[in-house]
Amino acid sequence: MAGYSPKYAGQAGHVVLEAVKEKAPEVFARMGLTLERVIERKLIPLMEAQEVRVAQHEGQFTDVMEVEALGIQLGATRMYFELADAFPPRDQFLAAQLGVEVIVNDMPRPHRPTVDVKAYLQTQSSSNGHKKKAIEPPPEEPEDPRPKD
Question: What is the pTM of this model?
Answer without folding.
Answer: 0.43
